[in-house]
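Whiteboard transcription, Tuesday session. T.W. wrote the structure tokens on the left side:
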């Protein structure tokens, strides 16, 4: 894998697509939000049932995915968390949030300008981009069995959100989310994403 390729897991309609995207040195979130293309190109793709990355149904050298079909993305390689952006000089606060996406329920933190986090409507419609990050996330999938996954960050497609709740400021976050930079390359290498699950 080249330095400009990033490993991700993209959730689409009940499946996980585990593979790589070319980032051209950009953050994964920026690739997803890039308005010049509505297609996400992945290479070395494993098509897996939810939560089963080590048992792919198919392996393909390349796949094109319409971005509108992506429910969420798990960055499974180095990811720059929102509070680490070099171009972000404004004061930001972390607030607890709950997001419902079909059969998924995600609890975690969103990072917002401190002066606006109490206004849920403004936050959801204006401050959260099309693919917005939730850090310190717990992702629950309600299928035939309930499965829970803890991840440092999940990038959520706002177009798939069924419900959004903005809670109280996250406790103990004097400098919000200093622990949210993600390095999960070893997890993918070992095909052990299942180790993140709680039954």
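and on the right, the sequence the group agreed on:
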């Amino acid at each position: 894998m080249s330095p400009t390729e990033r490993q991700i897991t993209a959730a689409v309609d009940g499946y996980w697509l585990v593979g790589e995207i070319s980032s051209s040195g950009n953050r994964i979130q920026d690739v997803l939000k890039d308005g010049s293309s509505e297609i996400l190109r992945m290479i070395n793709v494993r098509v897996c049932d939810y939560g089963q990355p080590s048992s792919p149904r198919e392996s393909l050298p390349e796949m094109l995915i319409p971005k509108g079909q992506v429910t969420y993305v798990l960055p499974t390689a180095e990811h720059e968390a929102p509070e680490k952006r070099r171009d972000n000089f404004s004061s930001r606060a972390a607030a607890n949030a709950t997001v419902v996406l079909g059969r998924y329920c995600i609890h975690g933190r969103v990072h917002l300008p401190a002066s606006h986090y109490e206004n849920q409507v403004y936050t959801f419609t204006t401050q959260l981009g099309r693919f917005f990050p939730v850090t310190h996330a717990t992702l629950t999938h309600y299928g035939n069995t309930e499965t829970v996954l803890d991840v440092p960050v999940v990038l959520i497609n706002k177009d798939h959100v069924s419900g959004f709740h903005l809670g109280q400021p996250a406790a103990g976050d004097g400098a919000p989310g200093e622990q949210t930079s993600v390095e999960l390359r070893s997890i993918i290498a070992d095909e052990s994403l299942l180790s993140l699950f709680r039954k």
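Someone added at the bottom: DSSP finds three helices and eleven strands in the chain.
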